[in-house]
Specification:
The protein is an all-alpha fold and about 280 residues long. It has one domain (about 60-130, about 150-275). It contains 9 helices and 2 strands, in the order ααββααααααα.
Length: about 280
């Protein structure tokens, strides 16, 4: 794999796509492909190109998958693809019915989109950690490439910020602008003007905590899983398949579970925002 130039400089026999040490290997595999080149990861104007590319490709795949299922749908005996998509749609729709008691015309498709996208994000963690980065480095000279968007803090936070905006929209939609403002100033301590500031501060903290908890839960689980796969890859090839296989089998449960939790919490947060307190 490729590394920072300073990590491989002066190491005899090390090629551009090889790691001179274990720490360089780990650092490389948890570093995103950034634009502009060489920019610091904490710079707010940095683009994580690999996360954006993989997310766009997975989004197109998910849309194409649903489009293909819709084109093949039949009123007669359904095929395997139609059965699978219908089961998925029914599962998401039932989850929305159980948690959201307002109009579901937008919330149900939103929940399906979130579940599908996060599931595909997480599924990328089952791809062996060396395959894609090594191929891109060898054939195209790409120095870094991470293929697990949910292990990049920017992707979960970007999705959770969208959920935050929808929470505000549904708060206003369900209670009206006046009702939303009234709840902001009078809940939970009461209507006394002396309590307005504590009410506002508490409500703001509660509002911000929702997207933060959504993002950090998803990011923390997938980042840890990715890091464990990277550490397993440092073992000799003849033994790494044993812990790697065991971890992958366990991770098969984590992939849909984290997508389900993100979707369910989104539905619950929108339901709480829509209902009056």
């Amino acid at each position: 794999m490729a590394s920072n130039p300073e990590l491989i400089e002066g190491v005899e026999g090390t090629t551009q796509c090889q790691m001179p040490s274990a720490d360089a290997y780990v650092v490389h595999h948890i570093t995103n492909l950034r634009m502009p080149k060489g920019a610091d990861s904490m710079d707010p104007w940095v683009w994580h190109v690999d996360t954006m590319i993989v997310s766009a490709l997975l989004g197109l795949f998910f849309l194409g998958f649903l489009y293909l299922a819709a084109r093949r749908a039949s009123a007669g005996v359904p095929g395997g693809l139609q059965n699978f998509v219908e089961m998925l749609v029914d599962f998401v729709d039932n989850s929305v019915k159980e948690s959201f008691h307002g109009p579901r015309k937008f919330v149900a498709p939103l929940a399906l989109t979130i579940f599908g996208l996060v599931f595909l994000w997480n599924l990328m963690d089952l791809v062996p950690v060396d395959y894609v980065p090594y191929a891109l480095c060898e054939f195209f000279g790409v120095p870094y490439f991470r293929i697990v968007p949910s292990a990049d803090i920017n992707a979960p936070f970007g999705l959770s910020v969208t959920v935050l905006l929808l929470i505000i929209v549904y708060s206003i939609k369900g209670k009206g602008l006046g009702g939303f403002g009234k709840e902001l100033f009078t809940h939970p301590f009461g209507k006394n003007p002396l309590l307005w500031i504590p009410n506002v501060l508490l409500n703001i903290v509660e509002l911000i905590a929702k997207p933060v908890s959504l993002a950090m839960r998803l990011f923390g689980n997938l980042y840890a899983a990715e890091l464990i796969f990277v550490l397993i890859a440092l073992l000799p090839w003849w033994i790494q398949f044993i812990p790697g296989g065991a971890w992958a089998i366990f991770h098969i449960l984590v992939v849909p579970l984290q997508a389900f939790i993100f979707m369910t919490l989104t539905i619950v947060y929108l339901s709480l925002a829509y209902e009056e307190h």
